[in-house]
Amino acid sequence: MGQVTIRTYDIDDCVGTLCLNGGTCMDDVNGFSCKCAPGYTGRTCNIDIDDCVGTLCLNGGTCMDDVNGFSCKCAPGYTGRTCIIEVKCGSPENGTNTESVSITEGYPGEPYNYTCSHGFTVDPNNLTVVCQLNTKGTIASWSLIPPTCSEVKCGSPGNGTNTESVSITEGYPGKPYNYTCSHGFTVDPNNLTIVCQLNTKGTIASWSLIPPTCSEVKCGLPGNGTNTKSVSITEGKPGEAYNYTCSHGFTVDPNNLTVVCQLNTKGTIASWSLIPPTCSEPTAKIFVTDEGSQNKIFVADLQDDLNFTDIPSTKEPRYITYDSVEKKIHWTDKETKRVYRADVDGGNRENVTFESSDELRGIAIAETSRTLYIANKSPRKITSVSIAKGTSFPRSEKDFVTGITEDLYSLEVDEEEGFLYWSMQTKIRRKPFNGSGQTETIYSNKWLAKITGLSIDLSRDPPLIFACDYEKTRTFYKAANTKNTENELAYLMDDPDISGSEEEQELLRDISYFNGSLYWTKDGSHKGIAVLTNYDSVSVSFQVKEADVISKPFQLLIIDVNLM
Q: Which of 497, 535, 494 lies closest to 513 in space, CA to CA?
């Protein structure tokens, strides 16, 4: 019998069988198995293995199953595979002009406060930065860039009082600013420099002092002079003058009586222009014209005994005055109807004017303007002529005042106030030198007849006017700024001629004020020069200094030898 061969075949059970999800089918006897891809299980690999089982997503994260793995959906502020890493800001970095940053990281929501370096500042809102998350919560960053602090400065220091304008608009800490007082003002130098200073925190800068107040520079007390009246002021302002007054019976060059408060070139120091003056007992000369003598003018030292001598003159000298600028006496001559001038010894005589149509009377000189004023008898007017240095003589006169209704006699000048005064029969009038003002009557008395004598005390304020009436033997004084308020002097003159009968009273021809005393040319039983001292006090004294060499005293002139 033959051999029987039996063949067996394994049926491939994988045929038509699907291992899912990438699984590999493995044929078995009468069966199959699937070798699943990672992450799957089950007979046919149809089951996704839950990788989240036993897996922890930290810090509130949510596990998300993946194929053969998982992922965590982290809560805001965390990251990493299992949300283990907290999201943070790094170091906020140093700002500009700030203190060094003191942290290396920051947590979300956490602020960090910068601090400006000492002496620097910034808007406080720019000093705080906050660690912030993005919308996904995955990135943290600081809310602002690091701040830039600016240097703390002082503002403009502001102008002081009486100072030069400030030249800066700001100041740096530690830097000074020096004020300068305006010209003519000063202050303690320690108050002129201010410094820009920081407060202790270094956040605020301010000036160390308020702007200074400079005070006007002044001269102190000018000090009493020698033989002067007591000084009446305690200080003087720049440009201000103070006029000393010599004590009674003393005199000095008038140019030395006025001191002026002056500034130095820098305007920081004021001082008086001259030292206080020294007034000395005056040495003066008295000149007298004589109606009874010809070709001479009499002169004497002004002292107790008047020892008159004569100097050469023209034929009939009458009215006389003095020019202290050129040191010359001027006089009118009744016969020649001219004005002459000469040295005080009568030498170097020259004609000043041409011959006039009628007699010339009082003359006076305005030394500042170098003008000679002349009273004319007929027509009644006042003329003027220039006597400026270098002028050629004789010169023609110009009318100054015309239309005068009474006879003219004496003239006087007040250079300080700028007036020419003249006396007439019953009035005393004045007019400004410049001719611009109106003629003003300062005294009027219809009971008078011939106000032949006129003199002014310019040391008083207001000046005092002295006058005498030749016919009425009236002599009086009054303030220059009042009308018809006179003080009689004749009653102080204890002399029988003056208090005698009516026909004997044509005696007081001229009057002159000098250094506190009054002098008259006096005719009569004992003729000469009448002198009244201390006329306005209880210690009044009167005497007549007889002068036999003068037959009929007419007009007098007294000159301080300091002016000769």
A: 535
Domain count across the chain: 3
The per-residue DSSP string of 329-354 comes to EEEEETTTTEEEEEETTS-S-EE-BP
Q: Are 294 and 318 in the same domain? A: yes
- Whether residues 266 and 331 share a domain: the answer is no
**Which of 377, 382, 385, 380 has its CA nearest to residue 360?**
377
For residue 353, tell me if it sits in a domain: yes
Does 326 score more than 70 pLDDT?
A: yes
Q: Domain range for residue 483?
A: 284-563
Q: Is 189 helix (H, G, I), strand (E, B) or coil?
A: helix
Residues 316 and 275 both lie in one domain = no
Residues 6+ apart with CB under 8 A from 116: 97, 98, 99, 122, 127, 147, 149, 202, 203
* pLDDT tens digits, 59-107: 988 998 888 888 898 888 898 888 988 899 988 999 999 999 888 888 8
- Tell me the C-alpha distance between 60 and 209, whole Å: 65
Does the structure show a pLDDT above 70 at 128? yes
Domain assignment present for residue 98? The answer is no
CA distance 505 to 41: 170
For the segment 500-521, the average pLDDT, to the nearest whole number, is 76
CATH number at residue 496: 2.120.10.30
Task: Identify the domain boundary among 233, 263, 280.
Answer: 280
Q: Distance (Å, rounded) from C-alpha 377 to C-alpha 205? A: 86
Q: Are residues 408 and 547 in the same domain?
A: yes
**For the whole model, what pTM was predicted?**
0.53
**The two three-digit tokens of residue 185, written as one number:** 């003002």
Of the candidates 377, 364, 357, the one whose C-alpha atom is nearest the C-alpha of residue 419 is 364
Dihedral sign, CA of 168, 170, 176, 180? positive
Domain boundary among 233, 260, 280: 280
Q: Are residues 431 and 494 in the same domain?
A: yes
Q: Read off the pLDDT of each residue in 47-67 and give the average, rounded to a whole number.
A: 85
Query: In this structure, what are the phi and psi dihedrals at residue 196, rounded to the nearest 5 degrees?
Result: -75, 120
pLDDT of 77: 87
Collapsed DSSP state (helix, strand, coil) of residue 186: strand
Task: Answer for the pair 448, 428: CB distance below 8 angstroms, yes or no.
Answer: no
